[in-house]
Request: fold
Amino acid sequence: MEVDPANPYRLRLPKPNYLPHNIDYDKPVVEKFLKPLDRPSDMENAAYLNKIKRFAHEHGITKPKGYNVSFHYNPDMEKHHFGMTHPMKPWRLTLTKSLVSAYGMNFAMDNYTARAATYEELTDYHASDYVDHLATVAPQPQPLDIENPNNDLKYNLGGSDCPLFDGLYNYCSLSGGASLDAARKLTSNQSDIAIAWGGGLHHAKRAEASGFCYINDIVLAILQLLRVHARVLYVDIDVHHGDGVEEAFFSTDRVMTVSFHKYDPMTFFPGTGALDDNGPKNEVNPGAHHAINVPLNDGITDEQYKWLFETVIQRVIDKFRPGAIALQCGADSLAGDRLEQLRFVGAAPSVQMSVIPPDLGPIRDETEDRLREEYAERNEQRRKLREEGVGDRMEIG
Ligand SMILES: [Zn+2]
Reply:
């Protein structure tokens, strides 16, 4: 296969996993986050860093006492593009990362550049023929189901939800790698809270892509946590049911999954996660009663959500006594999300800071410009579809 070394989106072929056995491999494998700012020159980086440092100092943003927080992420993820009209936009990671550093949060955490997950780490959960296919399949400029909606997609890849874009394998292994690094920081007791910024892809199945997710980084991370902890609790607050993670640990009592999600089996993706779905129906199966689902209707208020969350999670923790908790923070359940609106917009707290951190102005302007462009793009797409007499496509994620 032709590989252009100058092209950052080049295909990364699966490599054998080699980790030396006689050293503490966590240190060389997990790299310190060296360039968090991405300004054009070192001078500008230094000036900006000083500004943020002053802000962090003035507002008392320091490392917490008594526990450690780490942040795991690889900026190379941002370069990938799912396609013009696809709602999943990795560049948003850039914006949120800028926001995190503009608030001086880097000074409260240990920051690490995550490495890509190796082929063998990915096949810890995923089927090797599926991972081989992800690594070698050619990108498709057009989703295969546009002309023919009944196209039989191999591994559910190449359609408009899970398109085959340039650098797909690289994107998947970077997302998986960050969550693995985060999990290893926890198991080695170097972190108490580890944040993987580009993960949470909870719909991916063992050998099937689903709802914008190809590799289930959460399952990979929980498998790491299970090496050390007897029981791991998984909590999912994404607006969509955490079906991929639930399925992966369906038959074990070592992982309890709890998902809070919008539920409407007829119209809302993925249509699973009803109240009485709580694991295998056969009582002999150890996984029985270990998959808790909290289906929600539109319009839930913050107070109701908070009450429900605290009540359910407190009881789960008391009964299950997990050694570690994996939390999937899908932001699409927040009021005002552009994909789905689960909660009342008026009742939700937004990011209200009385102090604007340094240089947040340009970031906000940039965000608004990009959102405007995206909105115009989407309207244009809708107009075209209407002209062609095709209805609006249901969006999932
Ligand atoms: Zn979602």
